[in-house]
Structure formats: structure tokens, C-alpha cells
Specification:
alpha+beta; 4-stranded antiparallel sheet; 3-stranded antiparallel sheet; 17 helices; 44% helix
């Protein structure tokens, strides 16, 4: 399979995984007692292009022979492999609740998991239970959990379905754009509605959708790289069974947990002089957050992976779920060295990126053993942090500069041949190019809230701090006219 075909296949798996359970919102909004597979497939079909071509993911992601629509009913042989993969991904993502039975309640709210946290040595936890209201996310303020009796009636499933339909109809921006739309309308929707005496749903539909897409992309790329014969299977159930045999095979680890961590954050932010200190601190914090996002987007582009593979990003690091293939591991290693070479050149070695990964198998996802994976990751990342410039020794030792001919930046202390003036009265200059740029950025941030970050000129390859490509965001009319646009020196 050529690279373009691979990317298209993984793109369809990502979109299909994100939409496979969309019928759960529509089902609750309209009070339909048909199964969510039928409801979701019909809803996507009624939306028309381009969404109708993903209706198969909603119709045929279950394997229960008793269901009105199941994987066995899929007649399009071209979708057999994709549907079987999404069925497996859905099974792995929802395994936490696969044996749960209970009363169906379309109005059941999402439980606040922090009610269930009890720290050893503290007072007995409260028996009070709180829930999130069924509302869409917005940027007007935090949405806090409330008691079940005081649940807000301002929004309901009907309103969510109407908003979701309006956002999707006539628009299409790929997996990244769809993730943002689904987060807005399904973040506070429970992934299931089975309730019992001691159980209420506490996993959001959004998290189930994105993890299903995440797992599906991993399985899909694993099949392309290591089990290409499965791509020729035309019977969806036979493909499902063959996939299960391959995923359960001893020694097979189709998944990679990948973590990237920026090293040197505290020193980079606080190792400055008092000159324009507030602006510098503000700008450097913002710069690091933007840098982390840009590096992540660059890596996903190199790997040919959609945004669905991001498990977590924030606090100077991110975690990805990727397919465990030799090609991916080589690309990760090359990317790490290339990035650290750029960081060393632009930041004088003050910043570096630790990037490491650990493989794991089907059973660790299925049998609640992911804590073992995270422990292995923590140990490996700890070792990785101890050698931040691995592979760059030649560049470091060979970097012979005539520092006695250079001047020192008053903010960071870097030696440079040219300084720029921070104040009109300063004729000789006092700051290096990077600190000068960051100081300007700090002033821009203090003057007006900066919601979007772009470098110049605008292009499809430039992303804002939410990770949405400019061309997509512009098409979706997500960029308010009043948003202040600033430029910043990037590596």
C-alpha cells in the first residue's frame, strides 16, 4: 500500500471511530427505542455528503448476532476490513462496561468521578453524589458538577443533537476539526445509559469515541505493516475473527505508548535578568506551550497520523498511542534527533525533548493492565531524561565560537554578535533576537488576550494553540475577527 493510500485508510478509520456511536446522542434526543447502531447510521445518511459515506461505521460496529444491524450484515466488501477493525477498537475501548446490565435511562447524567476519590488518612468521603449537566462546552466559564436534583434543564439531549447537526451539516474539516466538534457536544454525555443500585455512568461519550478512533488507527496501521494479507479479506466476520487471532497471538504487541517531555522548562523560564522580567516570564511560558503544540503537530505529520492519536497534552509533555511498527519507531528516533539538534541550535542547549516509547499488547488494554504500561514508561522516560543530548555530542564539541568577539544578552546571557534595543534610550542594544521577540510577545499578550497563534505567512502547515490548521479553522469560521494575531520566532 502506497503512502497516500495508507493515510486515506487511516483517515477513514479515525473518522469512522469518532462517529461509530453518534447514534447514542440522537437516540436519547428523540427517545427512539431502536438500537443506537440503526439510529446513528440513519442520522449520518440523512446528513448527506460527506457524512453519509461513514454511515457504515455506525451501522456495523457490533458483532452481536441478535442485534438488528451487526457486522455480519455489512454487504460492502470494500468496508469489511475497516468495519472489523472499528468493531475490535470499540470492544477494547468499552471493555470496562461490556458486562454491565441495568435499566435504560436516556436522561441519566454523567457522574463526577471525584466523588469516588478517597485519600488514605483523610476523613470519610461524603456520600453525596454530583453529576455534570447535559450541556455543550463553551469558553464562557467552567462547567461545574451539581447534585442530581438540581440538574440544569437549560440544555438537554434535543439541544445537543440540534447543535451537533448544525455543526456537521455542510462542513468537514477532518479528524482534528471533528474532535473539537464532538468534544463540544459530547463531553458531558455518558457513554452508556445502564444504571443500577450502585452504578451510574462516569465515562463520557467523547472519551469513548476518541479512544475507539485511536485504537482503530493503531490496529489499521499494524495490519498494513505486518499483516497485509488481512486487507484482502472480503467477509467482515472472517476478518474480525482473523484480527482477533492475530492480536491475541503470544508476543504480538500492536501498540506503542509514546511520551514526549520538554526538558529544562524551569531553567528556561526563570533563568533571566530583571530587565522586562514580567514580559519575559509571560512570553516564555506562552512560547513553551506553543512550541509543545507545534512539535506535536509536526510529529503527527511526519508519522502520517491523525490528531486522534493524542491521549494527553499539557504541562510540558504529551502522550500518544501509536502503532508498533518498525517504520514508526525509526521515524520517532529520527524526529527526536532532528528536533534536539534544532533546539540546541536555537536555544543554546537550554531546552531539549525527551522522547521514548514502550510496546504493549491486546490483553493489557482488555484486562485493565494499563498501569503496568505507564510504570514501564515512567522508568524508561526517567533514564531518557538523564541523557538529553544523546546523539549530538559531535555538534556540541565541535561548536567553536569566537565568544570573545560577542556581546551578552542582558536577559538570558546568550553571546551574540548583534543586540537589539528594548528601550528607545538604549542606542547600543541589550537583548538578543530571541529575547527581543519574546519581550514583544509578552507585551502583546498583556495588551489583549491572545487566543490564536500563527507565524507568518499564513499557511496550511501553521497551527494555532488548539492544533487546528489555519485553512480548516478559517473554513469553519472558528477565527473571530477580533482575535489578535502575533508572530513569534519558532525553531
Amino acid at each position: 500500500m502506497i503512502e497516500e493510500e495508507r493515510r486515506d485508510f487511516l483517515h477513514d478509520l479515525a473518522i469512522g471511530g469518532l462517529l461509530h456511536d453518534i447514534g447514542k446522542v440522537v437516540q436519547r434526543a428523540k427517545g427512539i427505542r431502536k438500537n443506537h447502531m440503526e439510529v446513528g447510521g440513519e442520522w449520518l445518511t440523512e446528513l448527506g455528503p460527506p457524512w453519509e459515506k461513514y454511515a457504515w461505521a455506525a451501522f456495523y460496529h457490533h458483532t452481536d448476532y441478535k442485534a438488528a444491524t451487526a457486522l455480519k450484515d455489512l454487504e460492502d466488501a470494500g468496508k469489511a476490513v475497516g468495519a472489523a477493525i472499528i468493531a475490535h477498537a470499540d470492544n477494547l475501548s468499552a471493555s470496562e462496561r461490556e458486562d454491565v446490565t441495568g435499566k435504560w435511562d436516556k436522561d441519566v447524567p454523567l457522574r463526577n468521578i471525584f466523588d469516588m476519590v478517597h485519600l488514605e488518612g483523610c476523613e470519610e468521603k461524603s456520600s453525596a453524589q454530583t453529576y455534570f449537566p447535559v450541556v455543550p462546552l463553551d469558553d464562557r466559564g467552567l462547567i461545574m458538577p451539581i447534585s442530581k436534583d438540581s440538574r440544569s434543564k437549560e440544555f438537554n439531549y434535543e439541544s445537543l443533537e440540534e447543535g451537533l447537526k448544525g455543526a456537521l451539516k455542510g462542513s468537514f474539516g477532518g479528524p482534528t476539526w471533528l474532535l473539537r466538534v464532538l468534544e463540544r457536544y459530547t463531553a458531558f454525555v455518558p457513554s452508556d445509559t445502564a444504571i443500577g443500585e450502585d452504578r451510574t455512568p462516569d465515562i463520557s461519550l467523547y472519551d469513548h469515541l476518541r479512544t475507539t478512533a485511536m485504537i482503530a488507527v493503531c490496529i489499521g496501521d499494524f495490519v498494513i505493516a505486518d499483516r497485509p494479507r488481512l486487507l484482502q479479506e472480503k467477509d467482515p466476520m472472517e476478518c474480525y475473527k482473523a484480527l482477533e487471532r492475530e492480536l491475541k497471538r503470544d508476543g504480538v504487541s500492536p501498540f506503542l505508548m509514546v511520551e514526549g517531555d520538554i526538558r529544562g522548562i524551569q531553567k528556561y523560564i526563570y533563568d533571566i535578568s530583571g530587565k522586562k522580567a514580567l514580559r519575559s516570564l509571560r512570553a516564555r511560558s506562552f512560547y513553551l506551550e506553543a512550541l509543545l503544540e507545534c512539535v506535536l503537530c509536526d510529529l503527527l505529520e511526519v508519522l502520517g497520523m491523525p490528531r486522534t492519536q493524542v491521549l494527553f497534552v499539557g504541562g510540558g509533555h504529551w502522550v500518544l498511542l501509536l502503532p508498533n511498527t518498525e517504520k514508526i519507531k525509526v521515524q520517532l528516533e529520527d524526529f527526536k534527533r532532528s528536533l534536539n539538534r534544532k533546539l540546541y541550535s536555537s536555544e543554546d542547549g537550554k531546552l531539549s525533548m525527551s522522547l521514548t516509547w514502550v510496546p504493549f499488547g491486546w490483553e493489557e488494554l482488555k484486562e485493565f493492565k494499563m498501569d503496568r504500561v505507564f510504570k514501564r514508561m515512567a522508568l524508561k522516560l526517567g533514564k531518557e531524561r538523564c541523557r538529553p543530548m544523546e546523539g549530538l555530542l559531535e555538534e556540541i564539541l565541535g561548536d567553536q565560537k569566537d565568544d570573545y568577539l560577542s556581546k551578552s544578552c542582558i536577559i538570558c546571557g546568550r553571546r551574540t554578535d548583534e543586540l537589539k534595543s528594548l528601550d528607545p534610550e538604549d542606542e547600543e542594544g541589550s537583548a538578543c533576537e530571541k529575547c527581543f521577540s519574546l519581550t514583544k510577545l509578552g507585551k502583546a499578550i498583556s495588551d489583549k488576550a491572545v487566543k490564536y497563534l500563527y507565524s507568518e505567512p499564513f499557511s496550511e502547515g501553521i497551527v494555532d494553540i488548539l492544533g487546528v490548521p489555519y485553512s480548516i479553522a478559517k473554513k469553519a469560521k472558528d477565527i473571530p475577527q477580533e482575535a489578535k494575531v502575533v508572530s513569534i520566532m519558532m525553531v
